[in-house]
Amino acid sequence: MSAPVAFCPQCHSEVAFIHEGSSRRCPICGFTFQTGLGVGERYSPPISSDAFGSILRIVVIFVLIVLAIGAMGLGLLYIGCSHMSF
Ligand SMILES: [Zn+2]
User: Fold this and answer.
1) Which of 11, 34, 47, 57 gives 29 a disulfide partner, CB atoms 3.0 to 4.6 angstroms apart?
2) Which of 21, 22, 17, 20 is nearest to 37 (CA)?
């Protein structure tokens, strides 16, 4: 009878999302999100981009860890130098 309405996080209103394969789209603001249900058969994302995303995530985490260690090292070095000079 009536389409199931859901709360849209982007336009903050109760809308009937339009089903587009494995994703749903807000008819008001165009906000799109993946449902995660029945993904695979109808919608086949390129594996390379998925792998690229996971690699990118690992690289970002690695860079953050390196930066954190670098910052700690610089901090220790700075403390050491200030102790030396005074
Ligand atoms: Zn919306």
Assistant:
1) 11
2) 22
Among residues 3, 28, 29, which one has the least CA distance to residue 16?
3
pLDDT in tens, the chain (86 residues): 566 788 999 999 999 999 888 889 999 999 998 877 554 455 555 566 778 889 999 999 999 999 999 999 999 888 887 766 55
Task: Give the distance (Å) from ligand 1 centre to CA of residue 65.
Answer: 37
Rounded to the nearest whole angstrom, what is the distance from the C-alpha of residue 44 to the centroid of ligand 1? 25
Distance, in Å, from the CA atom of 85 to the CA atom of 70, rounded to the nearest integer, reads: 22
